[in-house]
Design a protein that fits this description.
The chain is an alpha/beta fold. It has helices at residues 18-32, 67-77, 119-123, 128-141, 154-162, 204-217, 232-237, 251-260, 275-282, 295-298, 314-326, 328-342, 347-362; strands at residues 2-6, 36-41, 50-53, 56-60, 86-91, 107-112, 149-151, 168-170, 191-195, 222-226, 243-247, 263-266, 287-290, 305-308. It folds into two domains: 2-174 and 347-362, Rossmann fold, CATH 3.40.50; 191-342, Glycogen Phosphorylase B (Rossmann fold, 3-Layer(aba) Sandwich).
């Protein structure tokens, strides 16, 4: 089959996140199953207009917002003549509105990792945040309620069902390395790690503020912050000498840091799933997070980590961290369960599940072709 994916970013984009990792890991495996895959995404500084990465054909045009206009233009001028079996409209806040322009006989699948919801208030400003939260997102997504949709967690599935979506399938996230065979030797000093982008919606400030409380009770504790983003300078200014910023690291260094850390903290306002949680689990490291969509799916509360019920409470987050750092028996239990939990997730398995959905859709078993 020939598969066309519209996404605002691809795996080489410096701003790529978990959604792009998911798409690339899934579809590089689907190409190995004998399918042709093309991704249309936005340009970035120094990028090639067209290239193949892991057998996926990637075509780039437009910027962060103009990519949506360019997508329709490229479809009308080029892609419509290439006869794709399935078109995947990957929705990251804004969709590509593929139902309004795909030709007869082509099937559409929506891929939605998470709803933006609170992101509007953290990453945009008035009045856009109010328009986005109360009007724009719901009205746009309701245009897709009849489209077969893939998401990555029960939280997002429930959000979509509440909006009236008819057919929603879950394809789990995977991890890019094999889980360790046993819990590794941890850092000598109690070590907390944050792994992810440094942006407002991730609430990295909460980790730093919680750490300030933790170190008063556990003076030897230290904090590692791994990742890049526009908030780094600000976060460095409010951190003390026990906080180390690593910036973006390669895969080997990431695994090394996750293996040595005692616990991972993810204070995000919401996630589609939380790949970093399972990556930490695969290194024998449990996670503490607020009880929010996505993270309540990737963390089994009390077994592979802890969910803080008081969403946004730095003090409650700090108390949970102290509890795990001081209770060796609890920490060992969480680490053992986390490692076992991580072994359930595989990109190979997830790719096979996604391929089954694509085949069902392409045979018309779920939806009639457009228009």
């Amino acid at each position: 089959m020939k598969i066309l994916i519209f996404n605002w970013r691809d795996i080489k984009n410096p701003e790529h996140g978990g959604a792009e990792i998911f798409t690339h890991e899934i579809f590089k495996r689907i190409t190995k199953m004998g399918h042709e895959v093309t991704i249309f995404s936005s340009e970035f500084k120094g990028c090639k207009k067209e290239e193949f990465i892991d057998s996926i054909r990637i075509i780039r045009a437009g910027g962060r917002y103009s990519v949506y206009i360019k997508a329709r233009k490229y479809y009308n001028n080029f892609f419509s003549k290439e006869s794709y079996d399935v078109i995947i409209d990957e929705i990251n806040t804004l969709p590509f509105f593929t139902p309004s322009f795909v030709k007869k006989g082509e099937y559409i699948i929506a891929l939605i990792h998470q709803l933006a919801r609170e992101y509007w208030f953290y990453e945009t400003f008035f009045p856009i945040n109010f328009i986005g939260y109360y009007i724009l997102e719901n009205s746009i997504l309701k245009k897709y309620v009849e489209i077969p949709t893939v998401t990555v967690s029960n939280s997002t599935k429930n959000d979509l069902l509440n909006l009236g979506f008819k057919n929603v399938f879950i394809v789990s996230e995977g991890i890019s390395f094999h889980p360790l065979r046993k819990i590794p030797d941890k850092s000598e000093k109690p070590t907390i790690i944050y792994l992810g982008r440094l942006k407002r919606a991730k609430r990295v400030e909460h980790v730093i503020k919680a750490f300030n409380i933790v170190e008063k009770k556990i003076p030897k504790a230290k904090l590692w912050i791994v990742g890049s983003g526009y908030l780094r300078t600000h976060l460095e200014k409010i951190s003390n000498k026990k906080v180390t910023f690593f910036g973006h690291v390669n895969e080997k260094k990431k695994i090394d840091l996750l293996s040595k850390a005692w616990i991972l903290i993810n204070p995000s306002i919401r996630e589609g799933w939380g790949i970093n949680v399972i990556e930490a689990n695969a290194c024998g490291t449990p996670c503490i997070a607020y009880d929010v969509p996505g993270l309540r799916d990737s963390i089994v509360d009390g077994k592979t980590g802890l969910l803080v019920k008081e969403n946004g409470s730095v003090e409650a987050l700090a108390n949970a961290i102290i509890k795990v750092l001081e209770d060796e028996k609890l920490r060992n239990k969480l680490s053992t369960n986390a490692l076992r939990w991580a072994r359930r997730f595989s990109w190979d398995k997830s790719a096979r599940e996604f391929e089954k959905i694509i085949k069902m859709v392409s045979k018309g078993n779920i939806q009639k072709p457009f228009p």
